[in-house]
Amino acid sequence: MTPELIVEYASIVAIAILVVALLLTVYRAVVGPTLPDRIVALDMLVGIVIGFIAVIALRTGYTLYIDIAIALGLVGFLATVAFARFVLARGCVGEGEEIEPGPAPGPAPPKPVATSAARAAAPKTAKPRKTSKPAAPSGKEAK
User: Fold this and answer.
1) 24-38 b/e with 16+ CB inside 10 Å = b?
2) Is residue 56 within a helix (H) or strand (E), and if so which, with residue range?
3) Cα–Cα distance between 127 and 4 in angstroms, integer?
4) pLDDT (tens digit, 9 = 90+) per residue, 40-99?
5) Axis crossing angle, helix 3-31 with helix 35-60, rounded to the nearest 10
6) Which backbone phi and psi does 108 adopt, to 5 degrees?
7) How far apart are CA 86 and CA 36, in angstroms?
8) pTM of the predicted model, to two decimals?
9) Is 138 left (phi over 0), alpha (psi -120 to 50) or beta?
C-alpha cells in the first residue's frame, strides 16, 4: 500500500465523517431549542467547513486553501464573539423566558452622600398635610 493510497482512503473517510457532522450540526442550528444552542452550532459549522477545506487542500496539493481556512477561522471566531455579546446584551438565555423590566445590568451607580453643609444649604420644604376625604355614599344611600 503506497502513501498516496493511504492519503486517498483517509481523505475519503474524513469527508464522510465531516458530512455526518455537518448534517447533525445543521439539524441543531435549525431546531435549537435556544439561541445559544444555535450560536454554538453555527460556530461548529465554521469548524466543519475548515475541515472540508483542509481535506480538499490535502487531496489537491494546493496549499493556498490552508490560508483560506485560517482566514475563515478568524472570521468565525469574530462572529462567535459578536453573537455572544448579543446574547449577553439581550439579558436572557432561553427564548421561552419572559423578560421582566428591571434595573440595567452592571454595577449600581453610587448613591450621593449628603454632607452636613449640603443639608444646611438645602431649602426646607413643608410636608403636605394628609386630608381625609368624605366617604363615598353607598348604592342605597345615593338613591
Assistant:
1) ebeebbeeeeebeeb
2) helix 35-60
3) 93
4) 999 999 999 999 999 999 999 898 999 999 999 999 999 999 998 998 888 655 555 555
5) 160
6) -75, 145
7) 10
8) 0.61
9) beta
